[in-house]
Amino acid sequence: MKKLFSIIILILFSQFQVLYVAAGTDGQLEISNKKDTSEVRDCFESVNRGIFAFNQGLDKAIFKPLAKGYRKLPQPVRSGTSNALSNLGNLVTIPNNILQGQVKDASINSLRLVINSTLGIGGIFDVASYYGLQKLDKEDYGQTLGTWGFGEGCYFVLPVLGPTTVRDSIGSLANVAGGDAWYNVTVANNTQYFNEADYYFSRLLSGIDFRAKNLESFDSLESTSIDLYASIRSLYLQDRLRKIKNIDEATETMNDDDWEEID
Amino acid sequence: MEKLKLVFVILFLILLNNKSIAKDPSELINGIVNEASLVLKSSDPVESKIIKLNDIAERSVDISGIGMYALGKHKKTMSEDQKIKYKKLFKSYFLKSFSSRLVDYTDPKINVISQKKINDKYTIVNSILEATSKRPKVKIDWRIYTKNPDKPLIRDLIVEGLSLARTQKEEFNSVIQNNDGDLDALFKTLEEFLIK
User: Fold this and answer.
1) Nearest to residue B89, comparing CAs of B72, B67, B70, B69?
2) Which of A9, A21, B5, B176 meets the CB 3.0–4.6 Å disulfide criterion with A235?
């Protein structure tokens, strides 16, 4: 039971960062893939909508107030937290860089991890950027599966965990199957330095940090949307597609034929 | 003779005024960003800011084109009456959501960094919304419709790779599909949004 709970908590926070897809990243983008995100099937839509409403309530009651409180912390504290969490994220990004054949990115991220963990005092300071090693996009096992050609499968919404697809859920499970070194040294193997609480706290903090960065954009989306569920679904699928394609330069995000029809 | 000269001068001035000068898409974005920034920075009341922002949008955004795009496949089944009603509704919906999104910003700093021509009809302008203490920097790309080079128009905003036009299209499609393909259900939803 404890293990099941742990897995649920784990997936929750590994999904958290893709829930609020309007967040900023440093990467550039370019989507050359012509696949239409609306082609992804929404399995059990009516059930999904009910779960989505439940999650919205949870967000309003718990996560949004926490994010607002976090926002009140001094900027250097938030930056340091964000940097340290991002540094930990490299433990998942690096193996996925390798699995996707991104040798150069894997090297840069490894150097960043070493420099920031030591000179940057546990990742609080992004010293690596001063040495010209700029932060790269995050990678996860769901993206790796996508890169390998696995389709999304059904889109669905999980209670608490939020929007996902079959592929992304399988990818999230890879973290608990040994794919995340941070999980391995905290939860899977109890060491004298870390314990489970460290892991879950880091995941919770990561979610709150992300939510805090997107308070306004999510409020804006909520107030202007006529079907918020459909908007979130569209944004989630577009975001995953963009990340899987590892886009570098902005050109287009959709099939131009869509626009041709109105000319 | 003097009168004839005067006529020629007037004609020349009219022709000069009408001379087509192709407008650079980046200039369009820089222009509207600066204009919007002045409005948002001003001490005008919110209502006045909204009117001015809507005026900028009406001049620089292809609202009608975005509206048709957002309808997707459903535009083919529309009657002429429905089309007229929809265009009117969409314009009001667009302007309301556009201004309410912007009016909360006091002084957004957007820097145009580059542009890339996709084809004769479209150019993508790349820009960065600078970071504040509350949020990180945001990458915004603008899809500019350049079929008429004298009057380029914005057709989409791509925020961190997420297309707002596509999101709108999938949102409208969802409303229509969940009402058995009934376009009037979309109209009703838009009307409800407008009176909110």
Assistant:
1) B67
2) A21
What's the confidence (pLDDT) of residue B175?
95
Q: What is residue A258's three-state secondary structure?
A: helix
Domain enclosing residue A171, as ranges = 2-262
pLDDT tens digits along A65-107:
999 999 999 999 999 999 999 999 999 999 999 999 999 999 9
Tokens 């009016």, located at residue = B103
pLDDT tens-digit map of A12-58: 444 444 443 333 333 333 334 445 566 788 988 999 999 999 999 99
The radius of gyration computed from the CA coordinates of chain B, to the nearest angstrom, equals 20
Identify whether the C-beta of residue A115 lies closer than 8 Å to the C-beta of residue A132. Answer: no
What residues 142-171 of chain A have any CB closer than 8 A to a CB of chain B?
none
Q: Classify B133 as helix, strand or coil.
A: coil
Q: Across the A/B interface, how many CB contacts are shorter than 8 Å?
A: 131
* Residue B14: both structure tokens together: 């009219």
- CB-CB contact of B130 with B109 (8 Å): yes
Q: Which of residues 169-188 of A touch B (CB under 8 A)?
A: none
> Exposed (0-12), middle (13-18) or buried (19+): which is A166, by Cβ within 10 Å?
middle
CA A131, chain centre distance (Å):
26
Please state the domain count of chain A. 1
In whole angstroms, what is the distance from residue A68 CA to residue A208 CA? 9
Residue type at B75?
Answer: K
The pLDDT-based confidence of A255 (bands split at 50, 70, 90) is: low
Q: Determine the distance in angstroms separating the CA of B130 from the nearest CA of chain A, rounded to an integer.
A: 11
Residue to test with chain A: of B90, B126, B170, B173, most A Cβ within 10 A: B170
* Interface contact flag, A24 B160, Cβ < 8 Å: yes
3-state secondary structure of B54: helix
